[in-house]
Amino acid sequence: MASFAAHSTARSVAVFLLLSALLLVCPQLAAAKHAGITRHYKFVIKMQNVTRLCQTKSIVTVNGQFPGPRIIAREGDRLEIKVVNLVKYNLTIHWHGVRQIRSGWADGPAYITQCPIQTGQSYVYNFTITGQRGTLFWHAHISWLRVTLYGPIVILPKRGVSYPFPQPFKEVPVIFGEWWKADTEMVINQATQTGLAPNISDAFTINGLPGPLYNCSTKDTFKLKVKPGKTYLLRLINAALNDELFFSIANHTLTVVEADAVYVKPFKTNILLITPGQTTNVLLKAKNHHPNATFLMAARPYATGPAAFDNSTTSGILEYDRPFSSKTKTNKLHMIKPTLPKFNDTSFAANFVKKLRSLANAKFPANVPKKVDRHFFFTVGLGILQCSQKQTCQGPNNTKVAAAINNVSFVQPNIALLQAYFGRVNGVFTSDFPANPPFKFNYTGNPPSNIFVTSGTKALVLQFNTSVELVMQDTSIIGAESHPLHLHGFNFFVVGQGFGNYDSNKDPAKFNLVDPPERNTVGVPSGGWVAIRFLADNPGVWFMHCHLEVHTSWGLKMAWVVMDGEGKKQKLPPPPSDLPQC
Question: Which sign does the torsion angle of CA 153, 154, 157, 159 carry?
Answer without folding.
Answer: negative
